Each structure stands twice: as structure tokens, then as C-alpha cells.
Amino acid sequence: MYQVLYRKWRPRTFAEIYGQDTVTAALRNELAEGHLAHAYLFTGSRGTGKTSCAKILAKAVNCLHPHGAEPCNECEICRGIDDGSITDVTEIDAASNNGVDNIRDLRDEVAFAPAAAKYRVYIIDEVHMLSAGAFNALLKTLEEPPAHVLFILATTEAHKLPATILSRCQRFQFGRIAPEKIAERIAYIAGQEHFTVEPAAALLLARLADGGMRDALSLLDQCVAGGPDVTVASVSQTLGLVGRSYLYDLSACVRGQDGGGALALIDRLHNASVDMERLCVEWIEFYRHLLIARTVKEPAALIVAPPEEIARLRQEAAQYTPAALLQALTLLQQTLDRLRGGVSRRVEMEMAALRLCTPRLQTDPAGLAARIARLEEAFAAGVQPADLAPQTPQTPQTPPAPPEPAAEQAPAAPAAEAFAPPAAPPAEEAPPAAAPPQEFTAWPDVLARLAVSSPPLYGVLLDSRAQADREFLYVLTNNDLFRALVRQDNNLALLQQAVQAVAGRSYRIKVNRMAAEPAVKPENTMEAFLRRGAELGLPIEEKDG
């Protein structure tokens, strides 16, 4: 029967354990000097050699003809441990034997002397899965076991172990194996098994394994099934690193604010039996790659993908700002949490797609911060707000005709409001009126309401003033960011509501530059100071002289 590569090439000596030189050197020194601990704890990520090292240690302490600190793998004890016929070495899976009764049985066994070997060795794999009662039952035995007993505990999640267990063990940390070491091992095994692996393909497999030798050999086994010649192209094809064009299509919908296209694509994927949770995970990974490609000078070191795929990722990442990518990742991570507990996964994904495609629907602080960051980058690049991607209702290409007097408009329809074009001369911005507009003295109260209902608007209007006539309220400001913000979402409606709440009536809003404002009757400095103080409600006493 065929034996998979990771089992066939499992390390049998400390020298064959790749990438854990510190651990193996310390264990060999202890064996050589005879300073063995009674309990060991091997921790680290999966596939890094914890269980293999535990079995090698069990053979080394019981080997009849050791080669220094290495087991001979030829005596009856070593062969018996390898094939499982030696009952003195017991491997326990704590995931399925995690009860108090299992540990009590083990505690009763340790009192008996070994039948054939020198030591009774108990290897408890995934020890963090033991119940609280089982840990308590193990404590005393683990602290003072008989001289002929050796405990080796292995786990991927050491933080779940009680401190009382950790303090009774000699701990060794197994780190992730470097990709170069894994690629070296893959090349050696390929030579022994008589198939070829390109160096670039071996390195790609090593990076896909994420530091685990067992995962790397499992992936190699999968690739070899397609042919004896393993190349970068065959690895990419076999492991599905290419052919996920729908992620780029979803990204194009997000960039183009095409919510309908995103929903149609999700519908096609759903009908093709694509799991929505898996789609969300792939979308998160895709945006993570875009963020790395956007911010890291050499993204190939952090992204496991062929060179042509990395080039495509860099092109796509250039269409985003880092803030937009971070916001997309945050939203998708939240969606993933809801998918695992929600009723309809498809609906959750559709909601997430619509929020990504329509930024004004992202009303949380992170979404607002991402949109403001996008505006700041656009202004820094010299892009006018009207030239930004269509986050807002489309602006006409030609300046609109002067609005005709109409009935007062409800705040719920901000898109219908008339705005003066930013570049229009001041004379064209002002509507025809028989009397010049007067100072709107309640403007500070409007700003106070905006500080609660729309902090971004309040921030850009701090240095502004306002004038009003019978129909229009003129906001006098030189802050171009206000012109951009007031055209987005329902900011105009919030401004109208604040004005109506203060003035007791509704106005149509226009924006004028403060420098182009028609001159009002001049005031001397003291009169202006007193008037401004009265507007702000400050107690100012006038004294003679």
C-alpha cells in the first residue's frame, strides 16, 4: 500500500528534524549527560516536529545500542516503538481521551515497572484538550512521578494550559520552519523518490506550508499526483492559486460603486454552490494581499503567489488608498463573524457587498474616517471633489441654470438642492434679490447642533459665517472640504434640519466664498467685538472711556 510522503519521511533521529536546531541540541545534551527531566512540554504550530521529536526522545532513552544521543533505530526496542508493539511507550490523544477517568487509569498504570524498556513513556498529544478535572488528576503524578516514568506533553496552544501544569514541565518551543529549510527538505525527498521539483516550486510549496514540514509534504504529495515534474505552474494550478478572477470582479464592482453588479456576481457564485463563508475568507485574504502590495516595497516576501499574480495584485492595489483597504478588511471581518452565527449567509454577504460598494452606507466611525482620508488624499493630489469616484449623485457636466424660485424643499431630498458651482464668479452665485442678504445671527446655534448631529460638518464650518434673505441661506466659507462633504450622504439634510430647528423655518442652502461676499456696512473694531460677544452670549460690560 502506498504511504504518503509525510509518514514515509517522518524523522527518525534528531538530525533529521529540520529547523529546530535549538531544541534538538538541548535534548541531545541532556541525553549525553544523563540529566533527563521527568516531564517535557513541546509547544508550537502544527507540523513543526513536536510529536516526531517526542517519539525520537522515547526511543533515545530506551535504545539498547544508542549512537551517542541518537537512537539506533535497529534494536528491538526502537523497532517496537516505531511499529507500536512496545506497550511501555504510550501515545495518548487528549482530544478524544480528555476525561478524568482516562487520567485516573494512566495514574494507576505508572506505578507498574516497564515490561521491556527502561522507561515508561507517556506522550500526550494536544494536551490542552484535557478537561479541568483531568488536569487536576494529573497534577500530583506529573510533579512526582516514579523514576521509571517520563511524560512528554505536546500542544499547539500552550496558553490554554493551567499554570500548575506549565510549572511542572521543562518547556521547549518549536518555531515555524524557515521556507528555505523546507525547500531543502523537499528537494532531498524529490531526489530520493525520483521525481523533479523546480527550486522555485519547492520554495512556493514551502511558503504555502506556513512553517509546517508536514503540510509542505502533504502539498507536495498532492502536486506529484498530477505528474512527476512539479513546476510553479503546476503548483499554482493544483492548489488553486490562480483562477479566482471573481475576486478581481468583486473588487472592480467596489471601485466602480456598482452594487448591482456585485449582487449579481454573488448570485452567480451562490448558484454555483460556492460557500459564502469561504467566499468571505477568500475576499479577506484578497484585500490583505492588496494592502500588502499597496504598502510594502517587496510584497513577494509576504504574499504566497506566483510573480505574475503579484504583479496583477500591485496593479489592483494602486486603485485603492490604504484607509479604504483597512476599512474593507474591517467590514469583511465583522461580516465573517456574523456569517458564523447568522440565519442567511447569502444575505450577510450581500449586505457587506452593498456597504463596500456604497460608502455612504458605512456610517460607523471607521467608515467615516476612511472616506475623509480618501478626500484628504484627493485634495493633496490636486483632485477636485467633483472628480472623485462616484460616491455621490453625479454632477452635471455643464453649470446648472439659475434655479427658479420654488416651494420650500423637504430636508429628505438633498440631491435636489441647488448649489453654486465652485468656480463660478461671485456675482453669479448670489440669487437675484431686491434686498441684500442680512447676517444670520443664529449661525453659532446651528453650529452647536451640527457638533452633535454631524461632527465632520461642524469641523469644516468652525470659521464660517452665514447670511440669509427670504429664501436662501448663504454659507460663507473658504474651506473647500465643506463643498465636498455637503454633497455626500445626507449632510445637506442635516444642515437644513439644524437651520430649521434654530430659525423656525426652512431655507435653501447656497455656498459662497467668504472673500467674494458682498461687503456689509463697515463697523469699527469695538462695535464688531461687542456684536460678536452678543452673538456668543458673552457677558460684556461697557464702561466710560
Question: How would you describe what is shown here?
Answer:
This protein has 545 residues and is α/β, with parallel strands linked by helices. The protein has four domains: 5-174, P-loop containing nucleotide triphosphate hydrolases (Rossmann fold, 3-Layer(aba) Sandwich), CATH 3.40.50; 179-238, Helicase, Ruva Protein, domain 3 (Orthogonal Bundle); 245-377, Zinc Finger, Delta Prime, domain 3, CATH 1.20.272.10; 434-527, GMP Synthetase, Chain A, domain 3, CATH 3.30.300. It has helices at residues 5-8, 21-33, 50-62, 76-83, 100-109, 132-143, 163-166, 179-193, 199-208, 213-224, 232-238, 245-255, 259-271, 276-295, 307-317, 322-339, 345-357, 365-380, 426-429, 443-453, 455-460, 480-485, 491-503, 525-536; strands at 39-44, 89-93, 120-125, 149-155, 170-174, 196-197, 229-230, 438-439, 465-468, 472-476, 508-512. The strands form three sheets. The protein has a five-stranded parallel sheet, covered by helices on one side. The longest helix has 20 residues, at 276-295. It is elongated, with a radius of gyration of 36 Å. The termini are far apart.
The tally of helices reads: 24
Round the mean pLDDT to the nearest integer and report it: 81
| Rg measurement, Å | 36 Å
CATH class of the largest domain, named Alpha Beta
CATH topology of the largest domain: Rossmann fold
Number of discrete domains: 4
Count of β-strands:
11
The major beta sheet can be summarized as:
5 strands, parallel
